[in-house]
Write a structure and sequence with these properties.
Helices cover 64% and strands 2% of the residues. The protein has helices spanning 2-18, 46-58, 62-76, 80-92, 96-104, 112-125, 129-142, 147-160, 163-176, 181-193, 197-206, 211-229, 238-241, 261-267, and strands at 21-23, 26-28. The chain has a two-stranded antiparallel ribbon. The protein is elongated. The chain starts with a helix and ends in a 9-residue tail after the last helix.
Length: 276
């Protein structure tokens, strides 16, 4: 609420400054604003305004999107799509309790998949991995071909320690979109946690993942192994030793990788950057 009030005050200040016309960068108070009706603003269209809010969130401007969500609601009323965007913004700004409340109210309607996904992400962020898996299972049942949802379900299973069950959604996600960095990275992470470092290296190599992403995958594998063992003192971190994740099966051929996937990764996959 404080963030919204601050944004409102900021916008009000901008409007006050705009009351005086400018010339050469300085205000000209002698130039009065026109009394003619202004042209209809771009955001007067409901669909276009919703698209603007979505784009703001894609760019990470979640606080600003909350201010626009309030403005949208005042002008056009409420809707499930708007409440979903509000819940996403609240979750991304750390207001998880408020976000959960909105998500739970959306689990039976048109935004059900997105709502269960949001609940799953909150559970995962709070370390409730078993609950996250159950929420994300509902998501995949509603949208079984959504790459992001499949990848998140696989990752949640990795975090819960169910390595074998993580394979299917991760393989499906990578087959559906071999150019998806998150899906490919999670499949490589599954290979590492399965003891198949050569397979993981081949996946990352064929997908041409940047070194920073490969390091992040290995770091995640080490962290998940340390979490399962209950202590990181039994093994050196790959960050401190400069070594990759130890694997007793490093010489194994690639196994468990979807048929033809490695060829697809190495042939026509476009260049892309890792997500932050």
């Amino acid at each position: 609420m404080i963030a919204r009030q601050t944004t409102t005050v900021f916008i009000a200040c901008l409007l006050l400054c705009a009351c005086g016309r400018t010339l050469g960068g300085y205000p000209r108070h002698d130039l009065q604003p026109s009394l003619a009706a202004p042209a209809a603003p771009v955001n007067s269209d409901r669909t276009m305004y919703l698209g603007l809010i979505r784009k703001m969130q894609q760019q990470g401007a979640y606080y600003a999107s909350l201010a626009h969500i309030d403005a949208f609601r005042l002008r056009f009323g409420d809707s499930p799509a708007l409440r979903r965007l509000e819940a996403d913004a609240l979750r991304e700004t750390g207001q998880r309790v408020a976000a959960q409340s909105i998500y739970r109210g959306l689990t039976q309607g048109t935004e059900a998949a997105a709502a269960w996904h949001g609940l799953g992400l909150i559970a995962a962020a709070e370390g409730r991995h078993a609950e996250a898996v159950q929420d994300l299972l509902k998501v995949v049942q509603l949208e079984p071909a959504n790459v992001a949802y499949l990848s998140d379900l696989g990752y949640a299973r990795l975090c819960s320690g169910d390595i074998a069950a993580a394979h299917e959604p991760l393989a499906e996600a990578t087959e559906l979109d071999p150019a998806n960095v998150q899906a490919v990275s999670n499949l490589a992470l599954w290979a590492l946690l399965s003891g198949n470092e050569s397979g993981a290296e081949e996946i990352m190599k064929r997908a041409d993942l940047p070194q920073v992403t490969r390091d992040a995958v290995r770091r995640s594998a080490w962290q998940l192994r340390a979490a399962r063992s209950g202590s990181a003192a039994n093994a050196g971190s790959p960050e401190s030793t400069g070594a990759g994740v130890a694997s007793p099966a490093a010489a194994r051929p690639v196994a468990g990788i979807p048929g033809g996937l490695l060829d697809r990764l190495g042939s026509s996959t476009p260049a892309y950057k890792a997500r932050p």
